[in-house]
Amino acid sequence: MTNTNMSALKGATAPIHFGSFLVTPQVFHTTTLSYALVNLKPILPGHVLVSPRRVVPRVADLTPAETSDLFLTVRRVGRMVERVYGASSLNIAVQDGVDAGQSVPHVHAHIIPRKAADLDHRGGTDAVYDMLDGEEGDVGKAFKKAEGGKRADAETPKKKAKFPVVDNEARKPRTMEEMGAEAEMLAREMEKEPVD
Amino acid sequence: MTNTNMSALKGATAPIHFGSFLVTPQVFHTTTLSYALVNLKPILPGHVLVSPRRVVPRVADLTPAETSDLFLTVRRVGRMVERVYGASSLNIAVQDGVDAGQSVPHVHAHIIPRKAADLDHRGGTDAVYDMLDGEEGDVGKAFKKAEGGKRADAETPKKKAKFPVVDNEARKPRTMEEMGAEAEMLAREMEKEPVD
Q: Model's pTM, two decimal places?
């Protein structure tokens, strides 16, 4: 939980990877088989990811125990972010494979807290999906950029922007400090969340 | 499995409800706590739904056992439809609550088989979400219409169509016979699917 061990979690934590990216400072919750992390570029406040600890690309690659643990973690973390961010609903989405829009070849469930009319200025409730699949939801690209490379631009095919209101490129990814602070806050909130 | 008992499943099956709708003939797979059904208006071939047997609106309302069973069923059914419909990826999405776009107040996971470039004519990979949240993915409205009422039009707020290529209102919901045939085919395919 200190900056020294670069983790929002209490006690020692082994390095945690999201695909090829080291994300330990962004992780706010772990179970035996899963973990939850904050996003570089949340598309709405409280947009977090839940992944299996084992780096595999597809849901079908998970064992039954990993599958259960992953979605029990989604359920518990979802309840927490809905409470903490004052939301009333959640979008839960898994892009399971490249042709479904997956950008990092490591199973991850998006959890996005929703409120009434929260995306009216972007086109309505369903705008969340354009954002999820557009540049601002491209977690792979965001992580590559955070690592300082420009290769992300070359590797990620250009997608058509459907909602011209926001210039995604102008939105800066959050700093490690910002993400670390949110991860610490969410780690504390997870402790308040009933286990069942 | 006959039209007499109105079920694609072998043996006697108690009536199964999706929200307030009786969907027994569309159900192709059941477990102790979950079931899978074909859609009235699939947005892509093989688009199916998985629900808990208990009618509750939110994922947080599920018990841990129901949550595990639901997503183990999603994983197994997903593997099956990906194989049967010759797909390479899956979109898995739960609209968990009204403000996330949920149209029937009964937890349901959408499973949508995806192939490379399958939605290029609709705007690209992410067009699936517009379709999911637009009129053609509105399962509540589709079921209400299937029940013969016009009240669906009055109850469902008009949504802006983003992809004008397809006139959704012109697309007819499938008949009970079509859905029953698909459900029987998928019930047989589920038997080939390994349990783990």
A: 0.82
